[in-house]
User: Fold this.
Amino acid sequence: MSANDLTSLGRRRKMAARPHLPKRRFGRVAAVGSLILLGALMLVGPTGVRAWSESSRMLDQRERELAELHAERDRIANRVELLDPAHADPDLVGELLRSNLNVAHPDEVVLSRED
Assistant:
C-alpha cells in the first residue's frame, strides 16, 4: 500500500466513526429551544414571576378583607351577647326600641335632624 492509500483509508475510518452532523445539530437546537421555552414560562407562565407577584398582591388584599370580616364578626358577636334575653343590656335595648319602633318615654323630646 502506498502512503496515499493509507491516508485515504484513515479519512474513511474517521468519517465512518463520526455521528451524523444533522442529528447532533437537531439535538442541540431542540435543547436550546427547550431552554428558551422554559425560561419564557418561568417569566410569564401560570406560575412564573409575573403570576407570583400577582398572587402576592391578591394574598395581601385577601388578608385585609379577612381582617375586616373578623372585626365585623367580633362586633356582631358582642352585639348578640348584649342582646341575650337572660341578661340584656338595658341601654342597647332602649336604643333599638327607639330607632326601630319609633317609641319614646312621655318625658322625652324628639328632635328631628335633617341629614
User: Anything to note?
Assistant: The mean pLDDT is 80. The radius of gyration is 41 Å. Helices lie at 3-17, 21-44, 49-82, 90-101.
